[in-house]
Structure formats: C-alpha cells, structure tokens
Design a protein that fits this description.
Strand content: 15-25%
Number of domains: 2
Shape: globular
Family: Belongs to the aldehyde dehydrogenase family.
CATH architecture of the largest domain: 3-Layer(aba) Sandwich
Protein name: Aldehyde dehydrogenase family protein
Number of helices: 16
CATH superfamily of the largest domain: Aldehyde Dehydrogenase, Chain A, domain 1
Pfam families: Aldedh (PF00171)
CATH class of the largest domain: Alpha Beta
InterPro entries: Ald_DH/histidinol_DH (IPR016161), Ald_DH_C (IPR016163), Ald_DH_CS_CYS (IPR016160), Ald_DH_CS_GLU (IPR029510), Ald_DH_N (IPR016162), Aldehyde_DH_dom (IPR015590), LUC3-like (IPR044086)
Keywords: Membrane, Oxidoreductase, Transmembrane, Transmembrane helix
Length: 468
C-alpha cells in the first residue's frame, strides 16, 4: 500500500526505496528523497513560523503542547499499529503501545515544566539576569528503533522553548513517523514542525544548512561524527546520543529471583534494539551457572513472532542491515568457540527474526563483547574480583549507561560511582524518566535530554547585566 499523501509531500529526486514490514517483508510503500530545493523552501517557512511561535506567550505554547498530548493520546492505538507494522515491535508487552505511552508522557512533562529567568548575581552595584532564548530552527534526526518516542524527545522540548523543528525520520521508519506528524500538526500552528524524508544525504544537507541553529541526533558513533563535521559549516549547537555498549555487573550473592524480569527486559527490550539496553553482563564465577540457568529458563517462555499477534512480546530485527550485522557477530562468536548457553526458537517466518541468544566463554577483546550488538544477543562474562569487573565494564569507547545489581545497595552505589557512563542504574537498566537528565560519556555523545536540563539544551543563554 502506498501513502499518497506522502508521495505528494516529497518529490523523487534521485531514488525511491521501499519501506518494509520487518515481520513479513510486506511492502508498505515507497519513500522518496526530499530535494534540496524542497528543504530550502521548508527552512524559509520555518524561519517565518519560528518568529511567530516564539513571540507567543510562554503560557500559550505550553497550552498548545498540552493539546498535542491529548491528540497523541486519542490517536495512540492508530499510531501503535503503525509502529508495529513498520518498526516491528509488538503491540503487546513493552512494545508499540508502550512506545505511545512514552510519547504522551514525554510531551506532557516538557509542556508542564517552567524555565524562568534567573538572577545569577546581585549586589549593591549590579544585577545580572540570565534568560533562556530560543535558538531558531532545530534539525532533528530520529532513528528507527524507537521512531516516534525519540522523535518526540527531540521535537517537544524544542517547540516548548520557542524553536521551529524540521524532522528527518529514519528511512526505515518513515510512514509511522509521518502519521504521528499529521497528528501533532493538527494542533500546532502551520510550519512550526515540518518533516523531510530520505536517506543520509538528505540529513546531511539539512544539518549543514546555514540556517540550522541546533542539531539533535540519535544514532551511531560513525554518523554522529559526520553530524559534528556538518555542524562546522553552521556552528550549530549539538545534542548527540550515539549509542552504547552498556555493561551490567551482578555483584556476588544476588537473589536473582527478585531481578530476573528486570535483567531480561533490560537486555532485550525492543529486541535489544535500544541504545541504553544491557549489552554485556558481568557475573561472578561462583554465581555464573545459576544465573545462566535462571536467565535461560526465563527466556524460553517469552513468545516471539509477528507483532500484530497479541500473543507475541518479542518481534523482528527492524531491517536487513542490522539483521546481517547481528548474524555476523553470532558467526564470529561461533568461530572463536563461544558457548551458546541458550538459543530461542525462531518463528516460522521470512521476516528478520533472530531468537534470544545467551553467549558464554567470551571476554573483552571478542567482537561479541566489544561491539554493540543492538539485537537479542547477550554475552555473559565471568569475573573473579569486583575490581576486574569494573575495569572490564569501563573498557569500551561507549559510555551511555551501565547497571549494578545487588541486594546490598550501599555496595552497589560504591561500584556505580566507579563506572564510566552518563547514567548508572542500580537493580534496573534503561529506566529513563522524562524529569531526569539523560546523556552519554565518551563516544556515546554529548549534551543531555529530558527535564529542565533538556529544555536548557535547546536554548541560548542570554544575560542582561544592569549597573545600578
């Protein structure tokens, strides 16, 4: 089926390519690259719309965004079905309906927060007041793993603070994103939020455009570095979230019965296709066999298949590129003699399915440990001492998230303080919150999103200094 409204929105320039249902490989429609001329025209419209939008009283922008919250809530089921169809995550479990709940929450919270002016210094001679002003036009580059939720993370704070937004969704999840933009734009003033579509060259042209003042990007380290290069042409401010290879450390003696569910979903939420998923699990050698058996038993009871079937709570890999990458890492693990501790049942489907897989007899230095799998494969690594586990957890170019699991919270906090990551969770993993700043260390990016700090990130600080 082809989305004719989208075909009118974007004109074919060089190529058209297909969007597929990853569970069935059904063709959803053709996606076209937005031309440079169209992007220029959209930016011209955004410049005009942004001035009008930022001139509105702050209370009015808040009110409009709360109406966006209502519109997303009312269309939640429709959009969830689109996510399942194009991204692949199931409607059931922590899947598409879960993603839509997050879209609603991450719209409501920024709309309810205040960022007033601040007197940063005052004495008998002077008074200095810090204001937060909109940047102008924000280029938002959204990924395919959580296409609607992460787009919301980029769009809503930017709009809240008076910016206009031009969004480029991933070429793999174009249609579901366009459906959401229709819903949002049924409430917003015209041209405050616009969308362009296509492959990397489209995003590259947008991010390097001289009128772009801020770039928000979620994706790979390699592409993040290209975004940094593009920003050298316009000095755009950056918020980059470039993935993670998150480590989890289970401290000795953990009562796993209290935590199995959280460890499993910490690793396999969205089939492991989440930047802040648990991707390396370090387990004390004395607890290894017990923990492996418990996780394998739990994993064997989690149904996988077409996300449209309400029985399933695990779905496919979203695209063939990622499917092939994960298969390559699995093959490499086989070639080096890794132990396959558990491998689930693959659905009888031609879709991009990889069953949940637990891998042992591997260590730092092996590709399956060192490279972000971004899929349903979890290497479990033995350690002898806590110091060894910490050193191995920190032995990565990434530093997005990490976790420590223990019945002794004081000991867990000591270990957490030594891990090199933007967020370290204790007895949970990937538990982001719209009030709590979230961002990475090392090559996982820079800048933060969410909460008051997230609002600050889409503004320019302006000081007015008054001599008394």
């Amino acid at each position: 089926m082809e989305n004719t409204s989208f075909v009118k929105e974007s004109t074919t320039v060089d190529t058209e390519f297909l969007s597929l249902n990853p569970s069935t490989l059904e063709v959803i429609g053709k996606v076209s690259n937005t031309s440079k001329e169209e992007i220029n025209a959209k930016i011209d419209k955004a410049k005009i719309a942004q001035k009008l939008w930022s001139a509105r009283p702050d209370s009015e922008r808040k009110e409009i965004l709360l109406k966006v919250t209502e519109a997303l809530q009312q269309n939640s089921q429709h959009l969830a079905e689109w996510i399942t169809r194009e991204q692949g995550k199931p409607l059931s479990g922590p899947g598409s309906n879960f993603e839509m709940q997050a879209c609603v929450g991450w719209t409501q919270v920024p709309a309810s927060l205040d960022l007033p002016e601040e007197i940063v210094f005052e004495d008998e001679t002077r008074k200095d007041v810090l204001y937060r002003k909109p940047i102008g036009i924000v280029a938002a580059i959204a990924p395919w793993n959580w296409p609607l939720m992460i787009a919301i993370w980029q769009i809503i704070p930017s709009l809240r603070m008076g910016n206009a937004v031009i969004l480029k969704p991933s070429e793999y999840t174009t249609f579901c994103t366009l459906e959401m933009i229709k819903v949002i734009n049924s409430v917003l003033p015209e041209d405050v939020l616009q969308v362009i579509t296509g492959k990397g060259e489209v995003g590259s042209y947008l991010t390097s455009h001289p009128e772009i003042g801020k770039i928000m990007f979620t994706g790979s380290i390699a592409t993040g570095k290209k975004v940094i290069e593009a920003s050298s042409k316009n000095m755009a401010r950056l918020t980059l979230e470039c993935g993670g290879n998150d480590a989890g450390i289970i401290l000795p003696g953990l009562d796993l019965s209290k935590h199995t569910d959280n460890i499993f979903w910490g690793a396999f939420l969205n089939m492991g296709q989440t930047c802040a998923c648990l991707k390396r699990l370090y387990v004390h050698e004395d607890d290894y066999e017990k923990i492996v058996k418990t996780l394998a038993d739990y994993s064997s009871n989690i149904p996988m298949g077409d996300g449209g079937n309400e029985v399933n709570v695990l779905g496919p890999i979203q695209n063939k590129m990622q499917f092939d990458k994960i298969q390559d890492l699995i093959t490499d693990a086989e070639n080096i003699g890794a132990d396959f501790l558990f491998k689930g049942q693959k659905p009888d489907s031609k879709g991009y399915f990889i069953p949940v897989t637990l891998i042992g007899n591997v260590d730092n230095g092996d590709r399956i440990v060192d490279e972000e799998q971004f899929g349903p494969v979890l290497p479990i690594i033995k350690y002898k001492t806590i110091e060894e586990a910490i050193a191995k957890a920190n032995d990565s170019e990434n530093g997005l998230g990490a976790s420590v699991w223990s019945d002794d919270l004081a000991e867990a906090e000591k270990v957490a303080g030594q891990l090199q990551a933007g967020t370290v969770w204790i007895n949970q993993h990937g538990a982001v919150n719209p009030f709590v700043p979230f961002g990475g260390a090392k090559q996982s990016g820079y800048g933060v999103e969410f909460g008051i700090e997230g609002l600050k990130a889409v503004t320019i600080p302006k000081v007015i200094s008054i001599k008394k």
